[in-house]
Amino acid sequence: MTALGHMLRRREAGIALMIVLFCLAVGAYKPQFLTLDSARIILLLTPLIMIGAMGQMLVILARHVDLSMGSMMALAAMASGMMFRYAPEIWWPLGFVLSIGVGMALGLVNGLLVTVFRLPAIIVTLGTLNLYRGLTFIMSDAKQIDRQYVPSALKAMSQTSPILGIPWIIFMSFGVALLTWWFVTHTRLGRQIYALGSNPVAAPLRGIDVTRVTLIVFVISGALSGLAGIMYASRWGFVNPSNTGNGFEFQVIAAVVIGGVSINGGVGTVLGTVLGVILLGCVAAALPLLGIPGTTQNAIYGSVILVALLIDRLVRLQGQRSMLRGARI
Amino acid sequence: MTAQITPPVPSDPILSARGISKQFAGIEVLSDVDLDLMPGEIHALLGENGAGKSTFAKIVAGVHRPTRGSLKLNGKAVEVTSPIVAQRLGITLIHQEPISFPDLSVAENLVLGLQDGGALSRVPWAEMERDARRLMDLLGVDIDVTRTMRGLSIADQQMVEIARALASDSRLIIMDEPTAPLTPREVATLFAIARRLRDEGRTIVFISHRLEEVRALCDRVTIFRDGAKVATDSIANLTDADIIRLMIGRPLKEYMHKVGTTISEVALQVTGLGRAGLFRDISFSVRRGEIVGLGGLVGAGRTDVARALFGVAPADTGRIEVNGREVRITDPAQAIALGLAFVPEDRAQAGIFRSLSVEQNISAAVPGRIAPQGIIRRSLEKALAQQSVAKLSIRLATLRQPIGDLSGGNQQKAILARWLLTDPQVLILDEPTRGIDIGVKAEFYDMIGQLAADGRAILLISSELPELLALCDRVLVMAEGQLTAELPRGVATQETIMQAAVPRNTAREEVA
Fold first, then answer.
1. In the sheet that B68-73 helps form, which strands lie side by side, from edge to edge?
2. B508 has which bridge partners?
3. What is the pLDDT averaged over residues A284-312?
4. Which of A62, A320, B238, B325 gives 20 to 30 Å between its CA and that of A45?
């Protein structure tokens, strides 16, 4: 176990505890929430957010933020959807290649604006959030890619399962998480992302190529948005220029921050982020079960995020106090 | 230029610099520096701020590229194009503020940038931590290498950087003002390690302001003034007066002095002040016209007492009387209203508003005077700032430039100016001359004396003993959160202050 792992273990235990408490509370009211079936529902809500969260985590670790993920996802998905519509006979896995490729290109644009022109990422990606969404409308002529154009093999990935009735896309999302974990804990580049976010001024003095690392995190963020885009087409069977990826970035940022990734960069783990995603999934699954009307769901969703952050803050303050007490002369 | 002949050293220089010059934005900050560093010596670079010593060090360490000039390492011409290249060549610069990645572990901080291999090559955690532990043992310091850097003391962070120099087997280690933030005990540890590294044949370059440290540690000294080297000599050949003359280019008249003042009634009386975990049972008084020093080691609680008096982190026991009236101070605004002013120790963090203009910084404590109706009148603000700048001879380009662009001494003057506008009766100065030039320091001493002569009560916290001895009418000493001595002028000496400042183990057992 790494030093970072030691330090954050408590933090992850806290999120896990929040998940358990939340599920028990909902289960006390609606016992069917505590069944395997509902676990499957929760898992089915998470794969897109999971994949997006991994990309967003890398960006935030480097002390940036990517607000354009949902729009990159839409544009990438739309590109693949249109390819399927114009060339129905095409080999369907090319959808993945195209979608991820488009995502990488869009991410590269974000990264170049941030590095070459030294613009703040929050402003750059706020701009491209609108730009990429707008391009999606222009490109698609504001028309949806309907179910009949999405290859059935692609759709089947969200329905058929290799094992335990768990569909392929869930395995894929956990695969991405595992790969990200390996990347950030076991590779030189992964550690450089933490170092850059922890102290951007010192990073170049330690031989870190700040431009390169920054470009890479934005390109990965774009690539994973593209992957989420094609998986959206798989999961829902259509691509819509206004719905696809709408609000995606906020769910993803929420998951990352709940998962304990510091918005100031340098701190955070894949495990924490995965738990953050699962907590969001639990909330999303519980709301309809509790009969909470769609109109109030957004407000509840937002409140849960704030409550999770508050609890975390209180726990950490408590920890600091007890440390201070121990240090008294 | 008065370059003197260096004494013969029986080996070839490890580093030869010839004609090193550097321009920033067309301004020459370093011109034609020739310098030879020998293996197995501790070589001091002395000079006022802006004299070019740090710039020279940064060129050697690859942080800056020289505009002209050449470097030879062990007789071979080298291009030091980046800090990493320097590290590979065996040159390490330990910055004034140690470079650290607070969220990474000590072991990672130690090796970052030193390993070979591509972006996706594996990070060898176990091996890395083992090596880090070995280096810490070698230095004889006890730091857990798996913990994060955050929260590590500056001294320990320096040790990590020294360990890093050893990890790359640096033969030339440059320390840029390493002792400024250290306690005397930490300085002693650092010196012991520096001597050991020298005895192994490494070269240590030691940049400092403190003459007594240079004398204690260094073999040879090079003095910079106005971007040029003015002398290199064995330290034994130079008196302090020589060194100061070479540094400032003129003999310094009357290094410090205290003007005779009339000491009248008590302005600040503190009785039994305490704050859990920081200090307790603090009682003293400061009279108008009096300068009372507060000495002790860093961490003794001196700053905490000042912060309590100013209401930043109020005391939880004891009483404070200002001009004979008992007061409760729980907030700096109350303290200001009562006629207190506090110039904090950490200028960058707590003193200045870095991105705001000089005039905004100066007028920050007197909103009422620049905005009589709640709306800031620029003309008033400007007039106030102009008066202050003239009175304290603050050197600046324009009043509207960001204060962060001024030199440390001038920033400090601006902060003092800010507080003088509140016409304080009690002035608390926490390490007011840390990190500022000798020349500006002398101005500060004059100013502090003048403020006392005007009938203000001054509490001066300082770690520089000569400063306390020269300026103060009385010196209070703190150790481990308690007052341990009150020494009137004449009784206070370097020895009596240090004796009272060193914590006694019995005191610690009592509390535990």
1. B27-37, B15-24, B68-73, B76-78
2. none
3. 80
4. A62
In the stretch 18-57 of chain A, residues with CB closer than 8 A to chain B read none
CB neighbours of residue B284 within 10 Å: 17
Q: What is the pLDDT of residues B368-393, one digit of tens each?
A: 777 777 788 788 888 888 888 888 77
A206: which 2 tokens?
């330690």
Please answer yes or no on whether A188 and B118 come within 8 Å at the CB atom.
Answer: yes
Number of Cβ within a 10 Å radius of residue B260: 8
Alpha helices in B392-492 (DSSP H): 408-420, 438-453, 465-471
| Closest to B278 (Cα-Cα) out of A21, A325, A127 | A325
Question: Is A185 in the B-facing interface, judged by CB distances under 8 Å?
Answer: yes
Cα–chain-centroid distance for residue B43?
A: 20
CA B272 → CA A45, A254, B327, distances in Å?
62, 50, 14
- Report the residue from B102, B107, B511 with minimal CB separation from A329: B511
SS3 state of residue B302: helix
The torsion defined by the Cα of B121, B124, B129 and B134, in degrees rounded to 10, comes to: -90
How far apart are the C-alpha atoms of A198 and B512, rounded to whole Å?
37
Mutation target for B interface from A8, A179, A188, A267: give the one with most B CBs within 10 A: A188
Q: Where are the alpha helices (DSSP H) in B33-153?
A: 53-60, 83-89, 106-111, 125-139
Terminal Cα distance for chain B, rounded: 60
Asked if B103 lies within 8 A of A194 by C-beta distance, the reply is: yes
Instruction: Look at A206 and B113 and tell me if their CB atoms are within 8 Å.
Output: yes
Which of the residues A209, A261, A321, A329 would you substitute to probe the B interface, choosing the one with the greatest number of B C-beta atoms within 10 Å?
A329
**Which among A199, A207, A327 has CB closest to B84?**
A207
Considering only CA atoms, which of B158, B252, B175 is closest in space to residue B214?
A: B175
**pLDDT recorded at residue A326:** 40
pLDDT for A47-92, tens place per residue? 999 999 999 999 999 999 999 999 999 999 999 999 999 988 889 9
Nearest one of B134, B86, B85 to B110, comparing CA atoms:
B134
Q: Is B148 part of the contact surface with chain A (CB cutoff 8 Å)?
A: yes
Q: Rounded mean pLDDT of A224-237?
A: 94
| CA B169 – CA A118 distance, rounded (Å) | 36
DSSP B29-83: EEEEEEEEE-TT-EEEEE--TTSSHHHHHHHHTTSS--SEEEEEETTEEE---SH
* Rounded distance between C-alpha atoms, residue A250 and residue A68, angstroms: 10
Concatenated DSSP letters for A38-54?
A: HHHHHHHHSHHHHHHHH
Chain B hits for A327, Cβ within 8 Å: 277
Is some CB atom of chain B closer than 8 A to the CB atom of A267?
yes
Which amino acid is it at B122? Answer: R
**Residues of chain B with pLDDT > 70: what percent?**
91
User: Does residue B304 sit at the A interface (CB-CB below 8 Å)?
Assistant: no
Phi, psi dihedral angles at A69 (to 5 degrees): -55, -45
CA distances from A278 to A9, A22, A141, B350 (A): 17, 11, 36, 42
Report helix, strand or coil for A314: helix
Contact check, Cβ <8 Å, A191/B104 = yes
User: How many Cβ atoms are within 10 Å of B81's Cβ, its own excluded?
Assistant: 10
What is the predicted pLDDT for the residue at A283?
Answer: 87
The complex's ipTM works out to 0.80
A177 compared with A324, residue with greater pLDDT: A177
Shortest alpha-carbon distance between residue B303 and chain A (Å): 16
Contact residues on chain B for A195, CB-CB shorter than 8 A: 101, 104, 108, 112
Residue A275 pLDDT > 50, yes or no?
yes
Q: Note the pTM of the prediction, 2 decimals.
A: 0.74
Cβ neighbours of B104 in A, within 8 Å: 3-4, 191, 194-195, 198, 266
Take residue A273 and report the two structure tokens written for it.
């982020």
3-state DSSP percent of chain A in helix, strand and coil, to 5: 75, 0, 20
